[in-house]
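User: Please run a holo structure prediction.
Assistant: Happy to. Please share the sequence and the ligand.
User: Here you go; the ligand is FE2/S2 (inorganic) cluster.
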Amino acid sequence: LPTVSLNSGKSFQSSGDISILDAALKSDIRLPYSCKTGRCGTCRCRVTRGITKLLCDEFGLTDEEKANNWILGCARCAATDLALEVEDLGSLAIPPARVIPCRISVLERLSNDSLKVVVRLPPNERLDFIGGQYVSVIGPGGIRRSYSVANAPRQDNTLEFHIRLLTDGVMSHYWAKEARLNDLLRLHGPLGTFFLRDVAARDLIFLATGTGFAPVKAMLETLPGLSEHQQPRSVMLVWGARSETDLYFDVNAISCVQRYIPVLSRGDLSWRGERGYVQDVFLRWAPDLHNSVIYACGSDAMIRGVKSAVLQAGLPVQRFFSDAFLSSNHSIDK
Ligand code: FES
């Protein structure tokens, strides 16, 4: 079996038919990931030696990255022994994923096409996770969809989700038409690596669209728990949506956000705020990126647009983190 060696000094065995990412996770080596379908770009790593084989399209990479030997660990397997450069998450205690039952305790409309769902776990169970991670919700008939947890870990063992309702989504149909309080569901998680890294003294910037606000809210809730010397220098949020009612949360109530810019893509004439793409609005406000770290969450098209704009504006790629929700014909509609 090919051996994959990482720049951290760790190594693991890969086998022909599974992705490099899955082989690493199987060997208990934590690499960054989110979608596992070649779209978000989170699992990018650079091949410094060896040959890989493509398993699915690498939408999450730019042409420039491909030309510079970057690959997506979820989209390729090892054809020979490999040496890879990748972000080392080894020192972070990432809780292991498991399956756990839960019941719906809140169902509430947030906007025309989004819903707040709160679930509670059995009294003797805990789900350890880091603010920003997602879980798979396993619903009726075994359908699974991934949703970011919209809160930092809570004492009362509840998890909140902000769910965008898709017109032709099977799970969306359940949420909109069939879900009732106390329905029994299962969760598999925590999953993904979209959580705050070291943000001490950084300008921390969140760019979100729609329900991409959910993991941002979770990360914001973790900030008060950081010690004084771990705190960022500043916190900014740019949140985009189609209309004012889609900005469903009162961000001004979150005291650690120093600058909040709501942005609408449509909006009626009475809207006096910003309009356009979140990345364009952001770059108009804060062009100096030398001390910044950016966390972006939205559709995969939004992530691609944000990533190329902020990298072009000078943000080092290792300070860009993203979590993409995928279109409805894929298995994820978080
Ligand atoms: Fe691999 Fe998203 S592209 S985890």
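Confidence is low (pLDDT under 50) at residues 327-334.
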